[in-house]
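## retry 2 of 3
previous attempt timed out at serialization; input unchanged, resubmitting
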Amino acid sequence: MSNTAQVIHRRLVDDHLADGHSEPLQRDQVTEFVRSKYPLMPQDDREDVTDHVLALANGLGPLHELMEDDLITEIMVNGPGRVLIERDSHIVATNIVLGLPEVEHIIERVVAPLGLNIDRRQPFGDARLADGTRVNIVVPPLALDGPYITFRRFRAKGLPLEEFTTSGTASLLRWLVRTKANIVISGGTGTGKTTLLNALAAAIPSGERIVTIEDAAELQLESDHVVRLETRSANADGVGAVDARALLRNALRMRPDRIIIGEARGSEVLDMLQAMNTGHEGSLSTCHANSAADAMRRLEMMALLHSNALSLEAIRSQLAASVDVIVHLSRTPEARRITAVGEVSNTSVHLLADETGLFKLPSRRAIDMPDEAWLDAGSRERKNQLPELAERRETAK
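## retry succeeded, writing output
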């Protein structure tokens, strides 16, 4: 069926352009063409072919089938040539081979509806598709082998916390969210920080007003009261940019119960710490770091870089008073897992749980305290998983 659609697509596009038309193909045009060329084709098959042709012509062309596969998390176009994908944490090559005109057509389909320009004057940029897919594009002269496109896709349905950790640690994390602990998720690129952020946010009690701030809107919260804000890049004239710091300052005037910052990586860090420490408890964010301890140092460094008035001691004091818990994610060949949950105390991070389970309760106090049964569950899980983890570490050596 896909081969038939591709043949029809090529014929229609060629005829369309030969007649001097530049507007997108319309459904009635495709339907009539399919009916005339394949009069004996069943009606259901005809509708399927028509849908496929329209996706090829007006969507992302040869990448349409990959975009329909929910198990694919990354699609990588490294210039003209074979397309690569990531599925189940493994990068594999597909049978799809793109030429330069097809790559350029895909870029145009991505950026044109958004009013963006990716050219030699501005040879790289980010975009977001309607389904939330994040797109990064780099073109020559920065891209040496032709245009590069990276699609990062997100699950239509969120994952439960148990997909990332043991049941005892998952129970602790839900308790921390309910009791309005300020939590920062750390990890490397592609470890699943945004997915875990969604899972944590699912534990926020209903009825609370949540304000989210992101560079590209990726969070898919199921709460009934979510206000979503997205940063804006400068236009072709270099004006109109709105960064996360400006949005955060505005969010403080929107009566938020919770503030969720998709990623802390710039001048907004200092404002985020101040918000966490001045009545806006229960905030959530992420940052790039190699460990939970490194996450604290990263936040400290970013706050210092954008503050000329505060000393290192003042920044550390603010950080210790603001961040309650660091949750660190790591990526293994098998899955993305929480490898550390640390409680922050005087800028030090004290481990409560690792990939084997929960072994210590936090010192944090709340009306409903954590259940010691979570420790028992964590201990049993840790005992069961130790041989497997030892074998995995030995294999990795």
